Amino acid sequence: MELIYFTLVGIILYIVSDKIVLTIERKRGERLPNRSVVFFFIIIILAVISFSVIQSLYEKPVGETPQTEQPQNAPAAETKSQ
Description:
Elements: H1 2-28, H2 35-58
Helix pairs in contact: 1-2
């Protein structure tokens, strides 16, 4: 289910980033010379923020993680020195 959320948010971020770039261009009255670079920085900032929020929602509290029993190491055999 988490994968579906990441995919949907990625699609939404693409659309939102494009609209932000278009708004910037409209306010400037001209097309940005490095439009793809501006788009990249906008989408990467939004992606890092939103994906970290999604990931934090799916982290389980420490008390809820199942405790697996780890095997005890056998004591090392003593060697006799002569």
